[in-house]
Known about the structure:
This protein has 126 residues and is of the alpha/beta class. The protein has a single domain (6-125), classed as Rossmann fold, CATH 3.40.50.2300. The chain contains five helices and five strands. Helix 2 runs parallel beside helix 3 (66-75). The two termini are 25 Å apart.
Amino acid sequence: MKEYKRTVLYVEDNELNMALMHHIFKKNLPSLLLLKAETAEIGLDIAVRRLPDLIILDIGLPGLNGYEALEWLKAREDTRHIPVVAISAFALRSDIERARETGFAAYITKPFQVSAFTDTVKTLLA
């Protein structure tokens, strides 16, 4: 059984995006365990149980959106230290500024360059 150094939680409701991220991690970040959740509610449950080293959170989720999920994570003693990366198709400057002001560690716009994405992940886990 493979031993992973760090854990990343990816919260995304789109199956194709989830499959793409799985492929990116398998090929470019093989030492990281990728946990997956299809809703913010499931992701928050996993975050509390597993305490991942990094969370990648889609902004436009059904139910709780990414901003609401981040607020929930930052309000808890056990999860507030986890860096959270916003990932979204919302690419306006105002979207990026709002995410930074809200407390996201980084903001990635879809579609993204794989190398820039993996660099961001590596930097936040360093």
